[in-house]
Amino acid sequence: MSDPQESNNTQDWDPRAMLNNLSFLEKKIHQLQDLVHVIVRRRAQSTGQADEILVQQQQLMTADLTSIIVQLISTAGSLLPSVKQTLCPESSISQQFGVTNQTAGVSDNVVFQHNNSVNKLEDPSDMTGFFGAEQNCPIEDHEMKSDDDADEGENLPPGFKRDANLRMHMRGHGDEYKTPAALAKPHKESSSEPILIKRYSCPYIGCKRNKDHKKFQPLKTILCVKNHYKRTHCDKTYTCSRCNTKKFSVIADLKTHEKHCGRDKWLCSCGTTFSRKDKLFGHIALFQGHTPAIPVEESKGSAGPSNKVEQLEFKYKSDAPSGSSCRNVMDLERSGEDPISYFSPLNFETSGIDGFQEFPRPPFEDSESSFSFLLSGSCDYPPKNGRYTGSNDME
Amino acid sequence: MKKQLVPESSSSRFDLLSEEIVFIILDFLNENPLDKKSFSRVSRSFYAIESRHRKFLKPLRSEHLTKILNRYRFVSTLDLSMCPRITDASLGVISGRCKEMLRSINLSRSKFFSHVGLTNLVMNCGNLVEIDLSNATELKDSAAAAIAGAKNLERLCLARCKSITDIGIGCIAVGCRKLRLLSLKWCLGVADLGVGLIAVKCKEIRSLDLSYLPITSKSLSQILQLQQLEDLVLEGCFGIDDDSLAALKLGCKSLQTLDMSSCQNVSHVGLSSLNSLAECLQQLNLSYGSRVDRALADSLQNLSMLHSVKLDGCQVTCSGLKAIGNWCVSLKELSLSKCMGVTDEGLSSVVTKHKDMKQLDITCCRKITHLSLANITNSCTSLVSLKMESCTSVSAEAFVLIGQRCQFLEELDVTDNEIDDDAGITDSSILAIACGCPGLEMINIAYCEFISDRSLKSLSKCSKLNTLESRGCPLITSSGLAAIAVGCKQLFKLDIKKCRNVDDAGMIPLAHFSQNLKQINLSYSSVTDVGLLSLASISCLQSITILHLEGLTPSGLVAALLACGGLIKVKLHASFKSLLPPLLFEHLDARGCTFQWRAKTFQAELDPKCWKLQLADAE
Fold this sequence. Notes:
The complex is a heterodimer of chains A (395) and B (619). Chain A is mainly alpha-helical and 395 residues long. Chain A has 13 helices and five strands.
């Protein structure tokens, strides 16, 4: 591949790209100039300030300078017609910073941001080492990203509305596509800039997501950090109102669960639920004494909330077979809310959800009247005929 | 005859007989149900003995259940098919009274019970071995789960229980491990999964009816691995094709009866797999299936145990029949009903080779002439049942041959056997048959215009006759009917539609003598209110068809309907709907009686649409 490149093939470079690069260079040179002026001015006025602040400011300036110069160098390097792919000695620095050489469009918000509440990078001197960690990716990243960017949203055979879905699809194509960089969210602009990949660390000491951990696995965005922290290090306060078992600390997780909760409608007498009928039958064929369990609403002719109560008991309780079913009914909280509403999936958006606010949700309960109906009618309920117990059927 | 007993204080001589001996005597009285009734009226001790002896009950009215069950404490078989209204409460009574004695219950015509009653029944009657729940279309899986509690259940019929699904059958498969006979005909909610589970869990299954179920080779291969399977019915299983039958090669060595009628996707290619059953298969039903030609017949020639073949509705070729004739087995039963292409040549070649033929059905084989009949009667002298409805080419003399040679005949159907005035069945034919076949139980002489009272009088000698169908025989009068009533006490089905000369005078002897009559068709006859009302004394009368009776008035009809307490089905002309009080319908509905309304206008001719001529043209 290198031979045709070095033979100065004039069709290997794109004039338009070169123009872009040149204008970029111009812009950067101006930036550089302004920055240097600022430094000069600051140095002149620097008397009244504390030393640490001065030092920090100086470091900041130096960092800015360095980055702009780096960009200048890399962009200048890309002007060379022989430079097309990554395998080029001049581009070692750009590799180090995960920069693509072909199209060197840039966005200004690339480099350092110190305004995050969560620790990201503490000093610029760490930068190299930190980015060194990313060294192995850029090559593939570079290749794949260019493909992506070229075809983004237009020529991909399956078009995906959400890039998360695109990434999931790409995983199916093979290992080469599974690198973090390949699966990273593509930029919205048509040109890809020399980005510095930002990573975040969890503040909890000892967590694998904490930067101090030996096997540090960084988090990608602030939202990831927030969700991770809630999920892993906080109490799970929200409970699914259908199954009453699963608890979550993140509302989005709860909503996702509720989409699927209770979908397993095939129920065995041992309490196991199955999403498909043939799975249930395979299970029963395999074991002695298991029989299919029948949804209760069939046996009880009358409609009403008490019906739904039963339905919940026997359909969604995956742990407790018969005997405890009545007990479960007793265990319910009774906050006297409207019994019909607890089935609505929209029930959960009652209060604004931000942070770890406590959120009054009726898990699954009844008004007084229907509950008393339950109590009085409890002797009629199926547990007595052993349909749901394993004990009657087990040999 | 009752002996003159000595005064009550001294014991009767009959008391010397032990109860067991009297039981044995009573066992001989099974033929006529009224005999046991008269036995129990003899004395108190006889009454008590009969109450202890009776094991089989078939009540006519569900209102009397409590009383009946109080009297008969040892009932093991309860046939409730004549009681259309069995509620959960009735089942409660039954389970409470019969308890462990009850082994078999037939609820096939009752609709008003639910899983609650069934649970009760199953819990109390732990020895239940047989349950017939056919036609319970409202029963759902909860009922099936209740049945699964019958641990000793061996025979279960769920035909037409359309609301039961795989889940319910799954429960039964797990619960009733001893199941030997299961009928799921028309249980459209059951498919491969349920049937597969039966095959896995119920290893004792001997007989399985899966007609019209949407099963495929997936469950069929599992079924054919049942080691004890003897009888398999796959009527109308459209999911079964030639490839599915390859599973037969898996080594099912016990299958004796296979019914693959109306399996449209099975051809002779698939049937060649039947060779693996050569040592065991005895009865094969391929009705309404593929063409019966040489290839098909040859594919079946290795079945050395085969004795019954049904090919109804198939296209038959002469070479096919000849090939059948060349089989090494000797068939006992052959049905070519409604087969196209049956000729004298083909049929004769079959019957002359298969001399042990006992049942032959050649309904609607219009090309058959007296030649075939001569061969049949010559060769198949042990013929027990002959059905030749619409064999219009057969002449009168041929029937005489039947009477002369087939003395073991019990069942004869010669409906519609004439096309022109000269040919056809006459009184002398029937005479010959009646004399020659004293064991005759069923005869159909519908639309045989020349049959008169003479035939009926000769038929009255056949004391076992239980079914007489003489529709459209205008020469029959009440006196002929009276003769039948007197002579044929077993009569339970009578069809005298369009016999214009039968009037009330014929009904009175029927009412008096035919205490077993269950079903009667009097349409277009001359019976009036009086005659109909007199039939009310027949307590087991269940089904009456009374269309276009000129002498029928609304008030008379009301009286008759109210008086016939056992009625469950009435076919009436729609014009009566508005003439009868609605309260009557409510009352009858509560009693379990249903009405079927017909709106056809009065048709004077015997064969108004000239069916016979049309069919003759079609041939």
